[in-house]
Amino acid sequence: MGTWGRAAKWLQTPGKSDMKLGEISKDYRILIVPGIMNTCVADTPAYDKGRKALTDKYGLTTELLSVPNDSSEANAKAIASFIQEKMKDDKRKFIVVGYSKGTPDLQVALAQEAGVKENVAAFISTAGASGGSPVADSLPMQLDAYLSKVKQGKCQGNLAEGFKSLKKDVRQRFLSSYPHPMVPTYSLAAVTTAESVPKTAAQTFKMLSAWDKYNDSQLLKLDQIIPESKYLGVVNSDHLNVALSMGSTFPRAALLEATVRFVIDDLSKSGVIKPAETTKTEPKKKSWADGFGN
């Protein structure tokens, strides 16, 4: 997975660096739902190395559901069907991770589809489009020419419908209808700078900076934070490279492991699951997650 050096450089507020990491509880499974156009870059799946590390090193069951470029409502049904099918053979609940449009797809699934929230223990949003994006609002002016080129590729679904689900007014209406998270929810935002944004994303970064300089070139920082969620902090990355290997050196595997560890630890402290057993005479130690992202 490469040598990343100190991960602190990728966090706006670094956490502790002297915590000893143990095993990760296998009481849950991990399901990642990626963003729009993920089928167009199927050879670059979201958190690919991170998922493999969680499985190979810690024995966790990890899944990637590659949803098509359809509306969040259509993808929510696909998510529900996937989860219901998986629950037939394994009763462990999922910790779901939504990246980019995967976040609103999961929000709709949790809010509207039967059997989803009952089988999800927690929801992690990384650079998630919970509040929509001004980029999606600007697309109709240039979408037809763009789609005519993309449709010739290997993309699945209806990109026009997918982008409509990312419009700010659409996402804000959803949040007004469902203002409270359905399960324990955690938000991790991404922010880049004019100096570090990739050239291919410089134009959208500049456009979004007219609203707020704190953006990842696709989403404003505030639109990445789900209302009433636990805020995990900000990573220094553009939107694509936070989850996809697109040329930028970024510790995606470490990020995924850290967020999964934090959430499982937080669930155990909340009484959702029992912490992993330790020596009976050993006093309870302060959790490694304390102080992360504060």
From TrEMBL:
<dbReference type="InterPro" id="IPR029058">
    <property type="entry name" value="AB_hydrolase_fold"/>
</dbReference>
<protein>
    <recommendedName>
        <fullName>Alpha/beta hydrolase</fullName>
    </recommendedName>
</protein>
